[in-house]
Amino acid sequence: MSSGPPSTSQAVRGPTSAVPAIRMVDIEKSFGAIMANRGASLEVMPGEIHALVGENGAGKSTLMRILGGLMKPDTGRVEVNGRDVTGWSTNDAIASGIGIVHQHFMLVPTLSVAENLVLGCEPKTQGVVLDYKRAADDVRKLSNETGLVIEPERLVSDLSVGEAQRVEILKVLFRGARILVLDEPTAVLSPPEVRELWAVLRRLRDKGDTIVLITHRLDEVVQLSDTITVMRAGQTVARIKTSETTPAEIARLMVGREVSLSAGKRVQPVARPSDLRPDQGLDVRNLGITGSHGVRVVDGVTFKVSPGEILGIAGVEGNGQTELIEALAGLRTVAGGEMLIDGVEITRRSVAQRHDAGLSHIPEDRHRRGLILEYTIANNLILGVQKYFSKNGIIDRARVMENALEEIASFDIRPPNPLLVARVLSGGNQQKVVVAREMGRSFSVLLASQPTRGVDVGAIEFIHQQLLDARAQGKAILLVSAELNEVLALSDRIAVMYRGKFAVVMPAAEASEEVLGEYMIGTKKGNAA
Amino acid sequence: MNPISFLTQMIRIAIPYLFAASGGVVAERAGIVSLTLEGFMLSGAFAAVLGTNYSGSPWVGVLTGILGGLIFALIHAVATIRYRADQVVVGVAINLLAIGVTRFFLKLFFASSSNSPRVAGFGGNINAAGFDNPLLWLGLLVAPVMAFVIYRTPFGLRVRAAGEHPDAAESVGVSVKRVRYAAVALSGILAGLGGVYLALDQHQFTDQMTAGRGFIAISAVIFGRWDPIRAALACLLFAAAETLQIQLQGSNAIASQFIEMIPYALTIVALAGVVGRAVPPAALGKVED
Amino acid sequence: MTASSAAVAPKTISSAPWRERAEEALIPPLVALLVALICGDLLILSYGQSPATVYRLLLEGTWGNAYGFGQVLYKATTLAFTGLAVSFGLRAGLFNIGAESQLAAGGFAAALTGLALPMGTPLILALPVCMIAAGLAGGAVGSVPAYLKTRFGAHEVIVTIMLNFIVLALLNWFIAGHLHVPETLHTPEIHAGVLPRLADIDSRFHGSAANLALIVAALVAVAVWFYLFRSRGGYDLRAVGLQPQAAEYGGISVGRVWMRALTFSGVIAGMGGINYVLGYKHYYEDGFASGAGFLGIAVALVGRNHPFGVLIAAFFFATLSQGGLAIHAFVPKQMMDVLQGVVILAVAMAVPEVRRVLRGARRRVDA
Questions:
Q1: Are A218 and A251 in contact (CB under 8 A)?
Q2: Alpha helices (runs of H) in chain B, residue ranges in sequence order
Q3: C286, C175 in Cβ contact below 8 A?
Q4: Phi and psi of A112, rounded to 5°?
Q5: What is the domain range of residue C204?
C-alpha cells in the first residue's frame, strides 16, 4: 500500500477487514510543471479520526480536493464506502456525504449564517421565495443537535474565527456529511477554541462519523487521532496507528529529509570582528503583530542577531514566522515593538529605506514577491537596486547585462540567457536569481526565508555556501526554514517559534532533531531568551 | 413651476434609468462589470422601433426590444465569462458595437443616418401625463421586484454569493458561471426595456438616442451602493436634477451644464467615500480559474 | 518543500525567448483582423455588394491617393495620442477611460494659449508653449482620478468615466457661454501656433487635414517608448503594472507610480489636442474629441500597449474610419462602426484565450 521510498516507509499495519470509508490509490495530479500528488494513497476506516500530516506542499490539500470533487486526478482511483467515484463532481461528493471544511473559510462574509448554510440547497415556499424562517429553524435544530451553537441571523463578517469555523462545520453537516475533512482547522484558533473543536470532533466520531484531519500540529495528531497517514513530496510515506508510534517518530517522518545532506555537519565558529560595536546587527524588541482575524500571530518576540552569526528559526510553518519576516522586511505593519539595524531604528521605515539601512531579504514566496515573472532574468537581478544601475534616471543596459552575465555564471543559473523571462525558469533557477540578487547587493543584515525551498540538491549546497560565506564576512543572518536539517547545519544559535513566541533559543551545539522537535510541537516550553 | 408637473416629468425621465439600473444591480452583484447598460439600452431601443414599425403593434416592439438587449447581453456574457476577456474593455466594445450595429441597420432598414420613421407607442392621452403607458408602471415596479429577487429568492442569494465569494458558492455546488450568465441576461432584458420605453415614448429611434443614460444608470448603481431600492432612489434623484435643468432652461439661474454634472459628481463623491464608502461586491470584475 | 519534493517536470525552454512573447502579443490582433474581415464580408454581402470590389475601393480611397492617405494620417494622429495615453496607464495596471475629456481639455488650453499669444509669434516659440498648456490641462484632468485612487482607493475606471462627462460639460459651458464666435460653438481663430499642413509641404496632400502634429505624435511615441523601456521610472512603472506585490517588495512606491502614471496619461492625451486645434481648424470646437477616448482604448488594446504597436493600430483604425467614407457609395460607412466594435471585442476575447492555449501547448510539449 505504501508508495514512498523504502527506507522511510512503514508497512501498513494489519489487513483491513471492514470496507474503508475512503480509499485513494496511486493518485497523480499535476499543475503545469508541478506534481502535487505523485502516486499518493489514503485509506480511512469508518468511524475514526484520521490525521493526514505533512509539511506545506506535501500534497495533502490537493488530495482532499480530489476527494471532494473540486478537481479530478490525472490518474489513480478514488473509492468511497467501497464505490468507485473517481473524478466525481462537488455535487456528487456532497450528495454522498463528503463534507470539506476548508482552511480558508468558504463563507460569504456579507451574508448571514443561515444564508451561507442553505446556499445551494435553499428551502422554498411557493417555488420561488426563499423560506428564511425554515432556513433559520433548520439551522437552530442542527445547532442544538450537534452542540455547535450559533445564531442563524448573524452576519458572517461579525463572527469570531471560532464561530465562523463552527458555521463551516455546520455547513457540511447540514448537507448530511458523514465523512468530514477538516483542513488545518486549528491554524487560526485560540487555545480554548481549539479545545472546544476537539470536543466537537470527538463527539462526531463517537456518533459514527468519519473524520479526516489535515494538520501539521503534532499535538493534535497525538491527542486526537486514531490513525495517521504521513505525506511528503506528493507521496504517502507512512500509515500508522497513533497508539503504535511516538511524537518523535511522527516528527521525524514529517520534517526529516531522506537524503540528509547536512546531517552531522555543523558550522565552525567564526572569528568575530574585533571592532564590533554593541549595536551592530539586527535587534528586535518585543515585536507584536496582529493577524487577519485579530489574533496575535507574533507575540512579544525579542532577539538579536550579531554580525558574523546565523540565527536559525525552526518551527512548523504557521507559527508566525512568515509574519515576522514580513514585518522585518517592511511588508507588514507591526502592532508594537521595535526593530533596529546597526543601531538605526527601522520600525516605521519603508522597504526602500530598509534596503538603504543595510537589509536584504530572500522572500519565502518567490513567485509573488521575489520575482517579476514577466521580466527578464537581467531585469529581475536589479529589482530593488535599480538606482545603482541607472544614471540620471536612465538605466545603464550595458551594466545590467554585465551584472546579469556575472551572476548567471557565479550561480550557475540555467539556461544562462539573461534575456529569458523569469517565468520560464525552473523553480530552483528562479530561486538562484533571487539569492544572487539579494546577496549580491551590499547589506549587513540578511533575512533568508525558506531559501532552498523547491531547489535541486546541487543548488542547495551552493546557496548554503553563500550563506556561510556571508557569515564569514561578518553579516548578520536570520534564517527561517521548515527544513530542520538546514537550520541545524547552518545556524550558530537556534530558536524555535511556536504559536507566535520563541519557545526556546539555544546554541546549535545543544540542539538536535529530537530536542527541537519537542519544542516545535509544543510539548516542551523553555526560555525565550 | 407646478409641483405635479415636475413630479410627473421627473418620473417619466427616471423610467429608463430605473430599468437599466435595476439590471445593472443584478449583474454587478453577481460580479460582472456592467458598463454595457448604455449599449443594451440602445439596442433595445432600436429593436423595439424595428418591431413596432413592421408589426404596427408596440407590444411586438416590447418583445423585439427585449430581444435586442438580450442579444448584446449574451455577447457580453460569453466574452467575459467563457473567454474571460477584460470586462471593462468588453464594456467599451459592446457600447461601440451597439452604436455601430444600430447605425448600420438604421441605414439598411430605414435608409437614414439619423432617425427611423415614426412608430406607434403606448398611451398618448395628453391628460394622463404619460401614466397611461404600461411600460411606465412596469418601470416603477422593476426596482422593488428586483429587490425581492435579490434578497428573497434562492437565485438572488446565489447572485450575492457569486459576486462576493465565488469560491464559497462553487464549494457548495453552485455554478457561478450559470448564475452570472443569468444575471447578465437579466440586465440585458431590463436595460433593453429601458431603451424600449425611451424609443416608444419618443415614437422613433434616433442615432445614439440613449445619450449617456446608461452611464447615469451605472452611476445610480454605484451611488446606491449596489442595492436596488437605493439605486432606484438615486435614479429619481438624478431624474429630478435633469427635470430641474429642463424647467429652468432659459432662466439662467444655474447653467444647465452644472446640473448635468450632478449625477457624475455625486458618484465620484460616493467612490471617494466622503458620504460613506461605496464598496463594490468583492468579486466584481475579477476573472479567475 | 524539500529538495526531493514535488518533482518538477523537465523543462526545455524555447530557444528564442522573443518568440514566445511575440506570439502572445501579435496573435490576438491578427485573430481580430481575421474576424473583422469575415464580418466585413458578411456585412458587404448583406448589401448585395462584392467584398473584393469594396475592399479594393477601400484601399484606393485610403492609401491609394494622397488626399485619402492624408486624411488617414490626420485621424491616426489623434488616435495615436489617445492610444499612447491609455496604453501608458495600462502599463501601470490602470485604466484611463477619460482620454476624451483630457484631449478636449488639452485642445481647449492650446486654443486659449494660441489666442493669448501675440499675432506673429514664431512657431518655434508658440508650438512648445501651446503644447505645454495642452499637456498641463490634460494632466490636470488626469490627476483627479490619480489622486482619488492613491488616497481613497477609488477605482479609476468609474472616476474617469464620470469625469469625462463633467469636464466635457464644463468645457461646453465655457464655450456656449463665453468664448464662442457667434452662431458657432468654437473659439476664435488662434493668433499663433498654427501648424503647417502636409499639403503646404507636398501639394499632393491638398485638402487633407494632415499636419505636422503627426511628427509630434511620432516623437511622443518614441519618448514614451524610451521612458517605459529605458528609464528607471519606466522600470518601476511596468513592475507595478505586472506584479505590484513584487514591486512593493523591491522597494517601489506603488502609490507614487500610480499617481505619476495616470497624470502623465492625461498629459499625453491632452497634447493630442494640438492636432485639431493647431493643425487643422485653428480653433477649439465643442465636440472635436468625440469618440477619441474609446477608440484610444481600442488602439491601445490592438497595439498591445506598446508605443509602436499603438502607432500601427492608430493607423489601422484611422484607415477603417476614412475607408468608410471612401466606400460610402457601395456600403454605408456605418459598417465601419460595426467593424470597430467587432475588432475590439475580438482582440479582448483573443488575448486570454491565446495565452491559455499557447502556454498550455508549451507545457505539454515540454512535459
A1: yes
A2: 3-29, 37-55, 58-77, 87-110, 134-152, 154-164, 166-171, 176-202, 213-223, 228-248, 256-271
A3: yes
A4: -80, 170
A5: 77-306
| DSSP three-state, residue A449 | strand
Phi-psi domain of A122 (left: phi exceeds 0; alpha: psi -120 through 50; beta: other): beta
pLDDT value of position A6: 37
Residue C254 is which amino acid?
Answer: V
Question: Which residues, 6+ apart, have CB-to-CB distance to B9 below 8 Å?
Answer: B243, B246, B247
Q: What is the pLDDT of residue A94?
A: 87
pLDDT digits (tens, 9 = 90+) for A33-72: 677 888 889 999 999 999 998 776 678 888 888 898 888 8
Contact B100/C166, CB-based, under 8 Å?
Answer: no
Which of A412, A406, A350, A353 shows the shortest CA–CA distance to A382? A406
Q: Which carries the bigger pLDDT value, residue A375 or residue A275? A: A375
Rounded CA gap, C124 and C111, in Å? 17
Name the class of domain B3-271.
Answer: mainly alpha
Cα torsion for C27, C31, C32, C37, to the nearest 10°? 140
Give the residue extent of every domain in chain B.
3-271
Q: Check residue A137 and give its pLDDT.
A: 92
Strand ranges of the sheet holding A83-84, from the earlier edge strand across to the other edge = A34-44, A22-31, A75-80, A83-84
Q: Cα separation of B65 and B194, whole Å? A: 9
In this prediction the ipTM stands at: 0.87
Instruction: State the total domains in chain C.
Output: 1
For residue C266, the distance in angstroms to the closest alpha carbon of chain A comes to 22
Residue A43, strand partner residues: A23
Better pLDDT: A491 or A526? A491
Tens-digit pLDDT profile for residues C23-58:
888 888 888 889 888 988 988 888 888 888 888 888
Crossing angle of the two packed helices C99-116 and C66-91, in degrees rounded to 10: 120
Residues of B in contact with C177 (CB under 8 A): 255
Q: Which amino acid type is present at position B63?
A: L
Neighbours of chain B (3+ CB pairs under 8 A): A, C
Are A481 and A451 in contact by the 8 Å Cβ rule? The answer is: yes
Question: Looking at the complex, does the CB of residue C363 fall below 8 Å from at least one CB of chain A?
Answer: yes
Q: Phi first, then psi: what are they for B182, rounded to 5°?
A: -60, -45
Chain C touched by A234 (CB under 8 Å) = yes
pLDDT class of B274 with cuts at 50, 70, 90: low
> For helices C232-242 and C254-271, what crossing angle results, to 10°?
110
In a domain, C356, yes or no: no
CB B184 within 8 A of CB A162: no
Q: 0.90 cut: is pTM over it?
A: no
Q: Say which residues have a Cβ less than 8 Å from residue C69's Cβ, sequence separation at least 6.
A: C62, C63, C205, C208, C210
DSSP bridge pairs for A346: none
pLDDT digits (tens, 9 = 90+) for B18-27: 999 999 999 9
- A203 phi/psi in degrees, rounded to 5: -60, -45
CA-CA distances (angstroms) from residue B205 to B16, B105, B116, C35?
Answer: 15, 11, 5, 29
Measuring CA to CA, which residue among A13, A81, A2 is closest to residue A47?
A81
The helix-helix angle for A132-146 and A161-174 (nearest 10°) equals 100
CA–CA–CA angle C243, C249, C250 (5° rounding): 90
Number of neighbouring beta carbons within 10 Å of residue C277: 32
| Cβ separation A452–C3 shorter than 8 A | yes
Residue A453 pLDDT > 90: no
Closest listed residue to residue B272, CA positions, set C155, C99, C164: C155
Residues with pLDDT less than 70, chain C: 1-17, 361-367
Quick: pLDDT tens for A392-412.
Answer: 999 999 999 999 999 999 888
Topology, domain A1-97+180-254:
Rossmann fold (3.40.50)
Smallest Cβ–Cβ distance between B107 and the set C334, C342, C352 belongs to C334
